[in-house]
Design brief:
The complex is a heterodimer of chains A (89) and B (586).
Chain A (H helix, E strand, L loop, with lengths): L1 E6 L8 H12 L4 E6 L2 E4 L3 H6 L7 E7 L3 H14 L6
Antiparallel strand pairs in A: 1-4, 2-3, 2-4
Chain B lengths: L3 E4 L1 E4 L2 E8 L2 H7 L7 H28 L3 H14 L2 H12 L5 H17 L4 H5 L1 H15 L14 E4 L4 H10 L3 E4 L7 H8 L3 E4 L4 H4 L5 E5 L4 E4 L3 H23 L14 E6 L7 H4 L5 E4 L2 H5 L7 H15 L4 E4 L5 H5 L14 H7 L1 H13 L6 E5 L5 H20 L9 E6 L3 H4 L1 H7 L2 E4 L1 H9 L17 H16 L3 E4 L10 H6 L4 E4 L4 H9 L3 H11 L5 H15 L4 H4 L6
Helix pairs in contact in B: 2-3, 2-7, 3-7, 4-5, 5-7, 8-9, 11-24, 14-17, 17-18, 20-22
The chains are: A alpha+beta (89), B alpha/beta (586).
Chain lengths: 89, 586
């Protein structure tokens, strides 16, 4: 199992479009992937789950992956959130 | 009870009489609970409904793309993800397997538990996504009953009544051939109302309480011209509305035949009549109703229907499409006219939003958003038929800063070798009284003015139209508002700048003579009103309009002005009685 923190940088937070980007990306991996914020854990492959996390700019979330491609999964999601900033900037 | 009368906001100028279909999704769910069948069968039913829904959404997406509405198409994507959500699938399956629920019950109970979770989300924008879930749930429930989605919202000639409508439901209703719609909520610029008008469905909106007083099957009259709704009319009332319907249809047909004749008065004064437009689906109406280009392109819908702030490319695609549809006539594109709360969905709390961070005040403070929009507009101006309009201007400084930004963008575009109109005109909205009062100075820095009468009235009289206790004080023909409009035209013309009107008053037939009397250069109005307004202008002379303006300016209240102008217009155009005089009980 692998964990990594990521900070939400894009100004609008994880609204519907970023949430769908997370779900689509997470679904491409075999590992079980979860996102955690303030002790709430959700399935990163569930749009309802990701939206319910209600992450806004400045929030820190933890990406947790468990499976044979966990390393790639965590890195890809971190990149989407922190580097690509959901392609918003 | 016979002849129960309601009043709402007229939203699509035609009359429909038909059987009512009261659309209330909740009742449909409760009444249709079925007996439980075995687990495998229920799972299969759910799977079938889900696959149907995915197919319907794919088709809808194709249709929206054809209607060049990529933004709504993207919202469909989110709904499709909901349908494939493991949380949803597992929960429904568990409810059917171990909870022994029917497929229908499982969907309903899942959605109810989800609603609670979403309601706890502090970010209102994300919490609103529950509406997408609700949409999906309704679709699934309908599919379970194997209803054809086209038949679900009333059938031919029906009057569909609901709390509110979505844009896609109006599209479906139009296909089913419904005659009219009535909504408890919404205003004339609600998207569903604009669509209804565009698709020729009679509509009255903002009719509070109507769903409680009507049952499916009742006969209903919708008068989208005056805003009157009659439930279960008696024979006499029905006959009078039928006559009004026939007469207005005949007149509108005549107007439509003459739509391309110029708006020139008997003594040769010409004014441009252009269209107020917001949605891609409205683009064909520029030509259909004989508009001379677009006098107001609202851009808020791009921002409100989008999941996030739309980028330059997305905006450019839309602006270019509008510019091409209107070519060779002009399109006046208004930059974003929203408050920060609307753009960022949360975080901006203001005590007085209407006196707050709106329009240009907001865009100047959010340079990235503003620059993207201005760049997209400039790029769409390559053929020379785009003008830029700045909303919520109150100070000269704001115009100067916008112009600086535009000049900087021009330099960048030149370096990038991108075509644009070097002489693009930049105008200010006249909504805040400081602009007419200081119009001498503003005329030195803008190329044109466009008067937004709704806001000008609101800010002049300090009346919020939505506040029922004072809304009777709101009238765009208040003598003070007329004085400010005239002041704007006089000062602007003195400096050889032109003035248009893009507020509701331009579609108000009694206001036409005084607007012409001021020598307004352009009137921009909802497309379907254009043929009639042009016809009226052709029946007036500039000389008599000046005379009527002078007399109207001696009146001391909005109601005196209205009474006077109504009398004068009815004398000249007896056929206007169908618009100016409500059909009511004797």
């Amino acid at each position: 199992m692998l964990k990594k923190d990521a900070e939400i940088i894009n100004s609008l937070g994880i609204h519907a479009r970023p949430a769908s980007m997370i779900v689509k990306l997470a679904s491409a991996f075999d590992s079980r992937i979860e996102l955690e914020k303030n002790n709430v854990k959700v399935n990163a492959k569930s749009i309802m789950g990701v939206l319910m996390l209600a992450s806004e700019q400045g929030d820190k979330i933890t990406i947790i992956a468990d499976g044979k491609d966990e390393e790639e999964a965590v890195e890809a999601l971190r990149e989407l959130i922190e580097i690509r900033k959901f392609d918003e900037e | 009870m016979k002849n129960k009368i309601f009043r709402g906001t007229p939203a699509s100028p035609s009359i429909a009489i038909g059987k009512s279909f009261v659309y209330s999704p909740k009742q449909m769910v409760l009444s249709s609970m079925v007996e439980k069948k075995d687990i495998t069968e229920e799972l299969a039913l759910f799977e079938k409904a889900r696959n149907m829904a995915l197919k319907q959404l794919r088709n809808l997406k194709v249709e929206l793309k054809k209607a060049s509405d990529p933004v709504s198409a993207r919202l469909i994507d989110v709904q499709m993800l909901f349908l494939q959500d493991p949380l949803f699938l597992n929960s429904v399956e568990k409810r059917i397997r171990t909870g022994k629920e029917s497929a229908e019950e499982a969907i309903v109970s899942f959605s109810e538990s989800l609603e609670k979770d979403f309601k706890d989300i502090p970010n209102s924008y994300i919490a609103e996504r529950y509406l997408d879930v609700k949409d999906i749930v309704e679709r699934l429930l309908k599919n379970l009953k194997e209803e054809e989605p086209d038949g679900e919202l009333g059938s031919h000639g029906d009057i569909v009544i609901a709390e509110s409508f979505t844009a896609s439901s109006v599209l479906q209703m139009s296909k089913a051939g419904v005659g009219g719609l009535i909504a408890e909520k919404g205003g004339r610029t609600s998207h569903f109302a604009i669509l209804a008008e565009a698709l020729n469905i009679s509509a009255v909106v903002g009719a509070n309480g109507v769903t409680e007083e009507v049952e499916s099957g009742d006969e209903v009259i919708v008068d989208g011209i005056s805003g009157v709704i009659v439930i279960n009319p008696d024979e006499d009332t029905k006959r009078r509305f039928e006559r009004k319907k026939e007469e207005t249809n005949a007149i509108q047909k005549k107007f439509l035949e003459q739509k391309d004749l110029p708006a020139t008065t008997i003594d040769g004064y010409s004014v441009d009549i252009s269209a107020n437009i917001e949605l891609p689906i409205e683009l064909p109406f520029i030509k259909k109703f004989g508009a001379k280009g677009v006098g107001l392109l609202r851009t808020e819908f791009l921002f409100l229907t989008s999941e996030d702030v739309p980028d330059e490319k997305e905006q450019y695609d839309f602006y270019l499409k509008v510019a091409e549809s209107a070519y060779p006539d002009y399109v006046i594109m208004r930059t974003l006219d929203l408050g920060g709360d609307k753009v960022f969905k949360t975080k901006v709390q203001e005590e007085n939003p209407f006196l707050g961070w709106r329009g240009v005040r907001f865009t100047l403070a959010n340079e990235k958003i503003f620059e993207d929009q201005l760049r997209a507009m400039l790029k769409a101006s390559a053929k020379g038929n785009v003008r830029i309009l700045i909303p919520m201007v109150s100070q000269l400084e704001e115009i100067m800063r916008v112009k600086d930004m535009v000049e900087d963008i021009k330099i960048k575009l030149k370096k990038e070798d991108v075509a644009y109109d070097e002489n693009i005109e930049i105008g200010a909205m006249v909504e805040i009284p400081s602009v007419p009062l200081m119009a001498d100075f503003f005329s030195e820095v803008v190329d044109f003015f466009s008067i937004g009468t709704n806001d000008l009235t609101q800010y002049t009289l300090a009346v919020d139209r939505g506040n029922k206790n004072i809304s009777s004080l709101f009238d765009q023909l208040d003598p003070s508002v007329i004085a400010l409009m005239e002041m704007t035209v006089r000062k602007a013309h003195h400096k050889h700048k032109w003035v248009g009107i893009c507020g509701d008053v331009a579609a108000d037939v009694v206001a036409i003579p005084i607007l012409i009397g001021m020598e307004m250069d352009e009137l921009s109005l909802p497309p379907s009103f254009i043929p009639q307004i042009k016809n009226i202008i052709r029946g007036l002379s500039l000389k008599e309009c000046k005379d009527l303006l002078e007399k109207a300016e001696k009146k001391r209240s909005a109601s005196e002005v209205r009474e006077f102008l109504k009398g004068e217009m009815l004398n000249r155009f007896p056929s206007l009685k169908n618009i100016l005089v409500e059909v009511e009980n004797d």
